[in-house]
Specification:
- It is a single chain.
- This protein is of the alpha/beta class.
- The chain has one domain: Alpha-Beta Complex (Spore Coat Polysaccharide Biosynthesis Protein SpsA, Chain A).
- The protein is built from ten helices and nine strands.
- The strands form two sheets. Strands 5-4-1-6-8-7-9 form a seven-stranded mixed beta sheet. A two-stranded antiparallel sheet has the order 2-3.
- α3 crosses α5.
- The longest helix has 14 residues.
């Protein structure tokens, strides 16, 4: 008898070798590595189930793996560029699961409510692939959530041959709507140009400012709390030339 299937396996994609901001996942944010701050927020989404970090088997990612192990966070390591293969191997090791959530470790302002809403839409629709961007981006960059059936992920891993598809995990699914049913979560407000992700030094400065303003008094701060801070801080509203509100 095989292992029981869990409803959801969450895979957080991370690496140290970011092209624009190397080592960002371990950058200090209010006294802890950025990736651990993000995982704190992810654990407030009750439907996520087991959260596993999928990183590479390169020496450059040893410090990341060591940090996660010390914090008790499960890790799976695989090929640097074949991230799709890394996800499939993570599923094989930590599954079986019905659905897989894909998140990326440059989003320390992740919103548990958006995550829960995306998962709820996925379950309700019965789609093969559901995301917070598939129907057009209305949520801030940095609140991205992708959910796919485990079967769809394994199909993509078995069939995708394009290097772009294998590096970015999910394009094989949403670029083949004739094979996979795709749905997207949207909100009424259009915040698609708002930038809360971390790719550049100015993005990290923004995240650190938000955590400095909110974390001590309210560790579980919400997206509305972030909006309220930015609305009162003209220095943050367009930090780095990017829309932050």
């Amino acid at each position: 008898m095989g292992a029981p299937t869990v409803p959801v396996l969450t895979i957080l994609q991370a690496r140290m070798s970011s092209r624009r901001l190397p080592g960002k996942v371990l950058a200090d944010v209010q006294g802890a590595p950025m990736i651990l701050r993000q995982i704190e927020r992810l654990r407030r989404a009750p439907s996520l189930g087991l959260i596993v970090v999928a990183t590479s088997d390169q020496v450059s990612d040893d410090p990341l793996a060591d940090c996660l192990a010390a914090a008790g966070v499960p890790v799976h390591r695989g090929a640097l560029d074949d991230v799709l293969g890394r996800f499939a191997a993570t599923l094989a090791h930590f599954g079986p699961a019905r659905d897989v959530v894909r998140l990326t470790a440059d989003c320390p302002l992740a919103d548990p409510e958006v995550i829960e809403a995306t998962l709820a839409l996925h379950r309700q629709s019965g789609a093969d692939y559901t995301s917070s961007t598939a129907a057009g981006r209305t949520f801030a960059k940095g609140l991205d959530v992708e959910v796919m059936t485990a079967a769809s992920l394994l199909t993509a891993a078995a069939e995708a041959t394009d290097a772009y598809d294998r590096e970015h995990v999910t394009p094989f699914l949403y670029n083949h709507p004739q094979r996979f049913s795709v749905v997207g979560l949207t909100q009424a407000a259009d915040e698609g140009e708002v930038r809360w992700t971390v790719d550049l030094p100015e993005d990290l400065d923004f995240v650190r400012a938000i955590y400095a303003a909110l974390y001590a008094d309210r560790p579980a701060f919400t997206s509305d709390d972030i909006r309220a801070v930015v609305a009162q801080r003209p220095d943050l509203a367009n930090l780095g030339g990017e829309r932050r509100l």
